[in-house]
Amino acid sequence: MSETAPAEPGAQTPSRLRAVGPYLRGYLARNPVAVVVAVVVLAAAAATGSLWNEAGALSWGAGPLATFASGRWWTLFTALVVPDSAVDAVASALLALTVLAYGERLLGSRRTALLLAATGLAGLLVGIGLHAAAWTVTDLRPVVAAEVPVLDPTTPIAGAVMAASAFATTLWRRRLRLVGFALLALFALYAGDADSWYRLTAAAIGLGLGAVLARGRERRSWHRSSTRESRTLLALLVAVVGSGPIVALVSGGGRGPLSLVVDAYTQYDDEVLAQCGTVAASVCDEQVALLMTRGAGPALLAITPLVLLLVAAWGLRQGRRAAWVVAVFVLVASGVLPLVSLADGRLRIDPWVDGSGAEYVLWAIASVVIPLVLAAALVVARARFSVRATPKAAKTVAVAIALAFLVCATTLFVVEAIGKRAFDRDVSFLELLSVTLRRFLPPAFTHPGGSTAFPHSGPALFAYQWIGVLFWIIVVASILWLFRRVQRPDATDEGRYRELLRRGSDTLGFLGTWAGNRHWYSEDGECAVAYRLSGDVALAVADPLAPAGRRLEALRGFTDFCVEHGWIPAFYSVHADTLRDLVELGWRHVPVGVETVMDLPGLTFAGKTWQKVRQPLTRAEREGYTAVWSRWHELTVSQASQVVAIDEEWVADRALPEMGFTLGSLDELRDRDVRLLLAVGPDERIEAVTSWMPSWTDGEITGWTLDFMRRRTDGPNGMMEFLIAKAALQLQEEGATVLSLSGAPLADDPDEAVEGDPAPLRALLRWLAEVLEPAYGFASLFRFKGKFRPRYRSLALAYRDPLQLPGIGAAVGRAYLPDASRREMVALARTAWEGRR
Predict the structure, then answer these.
(1) For residue 554, what are the CA distances in angstroms to 346, 545, 586, 650, 697?
(2) Single pTM value for the model
(3) CA–CA separation, 215 and 203 (whole Å)
């Protein structure tokens, strides 16, 4: 065995290498245009020498002078394939093999090649025309790049990809456009080089061509996104605002119209240095002292607001409330402090020679308007960032930051006091204190010109440069640590509820584990009720968990608990057994839904009555589709991203946000007790996904309840029938006896007479169902579930006092649609009214 064991890894290596060949051949077959573009760019870079000599390739570039004034019309073509440097060559090739390859799969190879040529040439021609026109306007010359021939293979790539975005799914269409245009605008507005503007022009043309090519297709990608995607998009905008000044700084100060924001992040004004030949020597000495305080430390301190925005963007993507606080604070400070500095003379904007004042407008847009507008957007969307840190972690971070500031400030003050000789003049106690406090803020907001003393050498200079940086490093580290300390439901409390669930629960009992629910327990911990607090209404979710014979006790206990806290108790989506007990206690009720349940013993799908289920099942199996069981943490990266894309497509089709309360979303899929069943095609593409929640009897899983249902809008029909049928057969083999297709919310039989049924509440719930029907299709979903010949179980809302009905009805609406605005509700009501006419 010792002789054969070492051979196993070696035996696997050739097989892995052999697998590379088919993959590369398949990639080339799927993306021939993308591969050709990458090869041509690299070959052109080598042929023209731009790989090792950037200046040597400029003769191949395009521009107003290079193309038209010089008569070199052929540069319109060479500029699209010849890169201007080795970095540009590598970046263009990578973009071609990744982003362009994705676009090629959406468009097809022939259309991709045509759009590369069309958008590239159109982008150059329009860009050159706008460039020449802008240069003729004197007022714009300071923000228009001088004539430098443009070499940029990413220009046609940007145009083709934006055209392809029209054919992408909702999730990736929105991401391609928002991320793409945000990055393109970032470089155009801040760096301002001609390449960036030509690239942006080509992308805009590609967007228009894509809309024309895709006309007739349903376009519903912009009016709705999930909470998760909204977080991602807002985080992206914050990151772009934080990156813009950095782009301008890296590009040598930037020539873009918004590059004036760099004035807020540069350390000192160079005007005094320019006057050294004509003014007193003391002014020059002062400027030399300022130059001595430059370096890595002051530079890092100057970009602290930008770093904080990037850190906040990371947290915003995860929904962290702490990141929201940091982002709003930094954005407001970034918009207000420049105004203060400009007003008191600490910040100066050099006017352009034409005296038009346009520089002040552009500076205000870049430095004030953009941060404040984005801060306002975050304030409006604050409900989307609800993931809070634990109180203990927040207190720890506050104490750590306060102590860090105290220690750093004290250290800096002591070092400067000891090294007073390093200053060019005597400094007083107040001046030392002022210098100390200013080192914790960006220099552009604190330096009052040439009146402040600075250390020239020694420990005082080192401390002056680095103490502030050290403090902000501690702040950033503390914020990142805080992001990981998420406030979660009481683990002990949740564990107790799950233990009671496993002892025995009905088909909807698992709903009580969802985020947003609270739990009431009896004194001995044997009974529990999951409830959601909406205003002053406590909506109990599903039936209470109680041992045999103790359900009445649990109902009374929860009611008394609510009365003690001043809440209005109501039981939502309870079954007939619980309803009988509540009626015995004097409660009234109204139907709010119908649950469809399949009894699994003896199920075969045989006979004519099962034809509508059997046909899609047989067809899907014949065409090579498989039903794959998994759990969220077991999904591959590719599978998880496909599930997210399918869900985002569904959300975009709704006129209201995702519903909650008794309807699960993508977040509920992450529970380790929840199983997923995926419909996977022969090409490994996921066509549909369902999730299943367990129910127990005496510690054993005896039933599963369908919750999450999503399918691709462009996928084959019958995928849901296929998944539900496969789930029923597989779970039957595992020993389950009940398969619940869950309830149809707010659905009831209009002809059903209910004793004690109050007309106002029932009318309100029917109206709410009518309002939500155009957006969510509850009625069609209910009819779909009827294909499986289920057993119907009525679900009811129980209440005590008719005078509490208005509050209970409003609470139900808020529970289902916590993020819907009044305008959205009015729009949906109008849609429902028009649908009835």
Answers:
(1) 68, 8, 15, 39, 19
(2) 0.65
(3) 18
